[in-house]
Amino acid sequence: MDCSRFNNFRKDRFYRFFHLYNSIYTPNMSNYHIKNLEEYFQVYRKSVREPENFWQEIAEEHFVWRQKWDKVLDWDFSKPEVKWFENAKLNITENCIDRHLLTKGDRPAIIWEPNDNQEEALKITYKELHKKVNQFANVLKDHGIQKGDRVCIYLPMIPELAYAVLACARIGAIHSVVFAGFSASALATRTLDADCKMMITADGSYRGDKTIDLKGIVDKALDQCPDVETVLVVKRIESEISMKEGRDHWLQPLMEAASDECEPEIMDAEDPLFILYTSGSTGKPKGMLHTTGGYMVYTAYTFKNIFNYQNNDVYWCTADIGWITGHSYIVYGPLANGATTLMFEGVPSYPDYGRFWEVVEKHQVNQFYTAPTAIRALAKKNLDFVEKYDLSSLKVLGTVGEPINEEAWHWYDNNIGKSKSPIVDTWWQTETGGIMISPIPFATPTKPTFATLPFPGIQPALMDEEGKEIKGNQVDGRLCIKYPWPSMARTVWRDHDRYRDTYFSAFENKYFTGDGALRDEVGYYRITGRVDDVIIVSGHNLGTAPIEDAINEHPAVAESAIVGFPHDVKGNALYGFVILKEAGESRNQDNLRKEINQQIADKVGPIAKPDKIQFVEGLPKTRSGKIMRRILRKIASKDTSDLGDTSTLLNPEVVESIIEGTL
Ligand code: ATP
Ligand code: MG
């Protein structure tokens, strides 16, 4: 079979380089779609040769439609305009809830694990979910919400968050979930941008041993948002809050009084489902608009394959529903498969750093999906936190959000997966709606730091700066996608020009991801970081991820970030910000610098050695846990008068301390 025509995968080379790759895990393969590498290629080949037939068959086989489509796909990247399943009619909640009632009505749809491990966990069956979503949908209607209206949801990870999302989808309202760790001003900006009529929130939230005054934040935000007519408030922490007469209502009594039957609104496949703002690592957040039919098909199909979900498995994604990962892989993808999805209210460090593993044991979690930032934080701690728990239920591990460095990958593989659970390193974006490049567990051999191969239907291309596609292997470039896929965002909310300019203008007829990637000798992809972060030193293009990976390999290093700063001779030079593990803190800093530099020289090359290495207590991060390199760039360039939009910054206090220690 000639695979190379379809996605650059070189089977001949693969087997030659096989020893470099992690072993193929032996699977238990009943009831599963893509079973092995050979089958992946068959499926992939079909998805590229006949994309419309490919997606049509999946859509027909796995979902409930009120009316079939006239046309599978219509697209033009120059406008850009993409339509999947034109004129098809459906309601996504029928697919996520109603159709499972007969066969799985009494099975848990959601397992909810509270912040405090002394509080009882909840198992919400499909029948109960149906009831709650219908009641909630009726409450929305009673408060004047109609199809197409925007509803802002600012809730902690409590069941009402999932109910709220699905209730909106039930009646065709467009939800805009804002992560409940954002500030009042970030919330106000998003509420205004989406022009929301309603806000759904809680009195407060628990976060480890702290409580957060959510309602207070909402009140402050709404001072700037006069068009929000109604605020529904979930009682969670029983705090004293002020309720504004006529505007604010407690949710629970309204739910209890509402009917538990709400006919689903029949939606067009291309009707909007939700707006979600990107996490804001790079600048002003963009309100990505996702539509109904294609999003459902893609998230459900990827979920099933990438997590190898089998009947009765318990799946846990630790993300917050406030991010795309939570939308697609806590709510819609799992529920469309009739899966059991775990929602966790708390944080990995409460009551101690063993909490994740305690939850895995308690609920016998089979698939566990988290982010590199969490893995690195936990890997810093004593292994006792892991070893106390029985993790034998785990079958598949996942990571998303940032490039995962090699050391963290091995820690995850050895200590959590016990070297028997494949790690799916899933690359994707808010804009892509679903996972784009990832191993298929038990089929694609994994390789640390590599997202490996494109999912069926995804046609990646690496582009050079002149706009030409770079063919062949052992190359790197800007990562683009050449062909539409069902769950791609259709526009930036009320700013189609920005959508076109950001994603479709850099390379003709291609979606530009903003990320850089390399393709190795067999055709596996590795994401090297954001293209904006690529640093050109003495004419060499250096991605941040491989350098940080080399630094993090040093036993004294916990985490690091590399940025460029202007240099008279080289054009740019590198500046490294490095957090040490406790064990490294007492060491001589000059020696450490030398060792780190040596490690970079060995692993990446001497050109990648930073001019400056500053040891820091912490790194500025977004609330989704990603390093905000644009702030570090300003600090490295000694240009700290205006740090730009910092409303999405998790830990502003570390910025000050880094500035004080600048070299
Ligand atoms: P903004 O677009 O506002 O700057 P963001 O890009 O951080 O925010 P997301 O859509 O949540 O918002 O994140 C997508 C980005 O995260 C990708 O473009 C990529 O840079 C990074 N990413 C996600 N998954 C992976 C992965 N598995 N490996 C490497 N990088 C990843
Ligand atoms: Mg982005």
Provide the descriptors you would attach to this structure in a database record.
663 residues; alpha/beta; Rossmann fold; GMP Synthetase, Chain A, domain 3; 8-stranded mixed β-sheet; 7-stranded mixed β-sheet; 22 helices; 32% helix; globular; binds adenosine-5'-triphosphate; binds magnesium ion
CATH topology of the domain at 90-146 and 280-519: Rossmann fold
Rg, rounded, reads: 24 Å
Cα shape: globular
Number of strands: 30
Bin the strand percentage. 15-25%
Number of helices: 22
The kinds of small molecule bound in this structure are: adenosine-5'-triphosphate, magnesium ion
Helical amount among residues, as a percent range? 25-40%
- Largest β sheet strand count, sense and barrel closure: 8 strands, mixed
In terms of structural class, how would the helical and strand content be classed?
alpha/beta
Tell me the CATH superfamily of the domain at 90-146 and 280-519: ANL, N-terminal domain
Q: Which CATH architecture of the domain at 90-146 and 280-519 is right? A: 3-Layer(aba) Sandwich
Spans of at least 5 consecutive residues with low confidence: 22-32
Domain Acetyl-coenzyme A synthetase N-terminal: 40-96
Binding site for CoA: 207-210, 325, 538
InterPro entries: Ac_CoA_lig, ACAS_N, AMP-bd_C, AMP-bd_C_sf, AMP-binding_CS, AMP-dep_synth/lig_dom, ANL_N_sf
Cofactor: Mg(2+)
Q: How would you describe what is shown here?
A:
- The chain is α/β, with parallel strands linked by helices.
- Among the domains are: 90-146 and 280-519, ANL, N-terminal domain (Rossmann fold, 3-Layer(aba) Sandwich); 534-661, ANL, C-terminal domain (GMP Synthetase, Chain A, domain 3, 2-Layer Sandwich).
- 32% of the residues lie in helices and 22% in strands.
- It contains 22 helices and 30 strands.
- The strands form 8 sheets. The protein has an 8-stranded mixed sheet with strand order 12-11-8-6-7-14-15-23, with helices on both faces.
- The N and C termini lie far apart (56 Å).
- The model is unreliable at 22-32 (pLDDT under 50).
- Magnesium ion is lined by residues 278, 429, 514.
- InterPro entries: Ac_CoA_lig, ACAS_N, AMP-bd_C, AMP-bd_C_sf, AMP-binding_CS, AMP-dep_synth/lig_dom, ANL_N_sf.
- One of its GO terms (molecular function) is acetate-CoA ligase activity.
- This is Acetyl-coenzyme A synthetase.
- It holds the Pfam family ACAS_N.
- Residues 40-96 form the Acetyl-coenzyme A synthetase N-terminal domain.
